[in-house]
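Appendix B. Chain record.
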Amino acid sequence: MNDLNIGREAGTVAVELNRPRAINALTGPMLATLREELTGAERIELSGAGDKGFCAGADIRELRSLALRDPSAAGDWLEAEYDLDLAIARIGAGTAHLHGISMGGGLGLSLRLRVEARQDLVLAMPEVGIGLWPDVGVTFELSRAPRLTGRHLAMTGSSIDAASALWAGLVDAVVDENGTELDVRPQDSELARSAGWIEACYDFVDPVQIVEALSSRPEAEARQAADLIATRCPISVAVALEAVRRAEGAGDVEEVLATDRLLGRAFMRRPDFCEGVRAQLVDKDHDPHWSHSGLGEVTRAEVEGIFEGK
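Structure tokens predicted for this chain:
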């Protein structure tokens, strides 16, 4: 079975990701094939096979195996992913059809197209849970989500539903299985209802101050967010905040992807990614031993060094 089903008609390239048992996780060969097949495309139609979801993101087992052997080669793997994301952004015409689990690298492929999401959407950038940060240029879109909700999504790795994604500007329409646009009320979504305490808590440069603000709020959801951040990789959380803050001043996705290239190579040289994937997917003990015991141990100098590729 092919991992990609690709069709062409005039200048339109139709791509179906076709690893349904792996929720269409992106492998290195898939990235290379897509980059080649999209050369000269004027429009892209993007979808994912199977009922579970559009795309779970990059195949992080594959990336971890590569990082354990050769961190530089793992950095090259990420570069190839970002090259593809940039190529799609430059085409910029077409539609991404999202359903179910739509995360990580899948969003890097889709967010610069028109995004139509089904009601079963589960959208997230959960990288802070595996020792990474929200990459593939998505901090550009997160930084433009209203009322600092992008900072919240980046630092927690929380998932949101279709109505919340529409309110945040991460999708353009919510549709049924036939592609008919549905009348939803994004202002009543869970993320919109939480925007008050999110905006109050995330308006800090220091991630520790954000967690303290969350912990002191009367809303149970805010305190739960603080508890969730405490389980995430500390350096990832700090970098996630800084990445969104920097993206707020970026002129375009290409500028954000240039930063991601530096960050990607820096993270591949660190132990947290391999440890995070070990805990989540290899040994499945859900007990990662991060390089910092808590967010308070992460220094500003260390964060700035990572943005310099150190």
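Further analysis of this model is presented in Appendix C.
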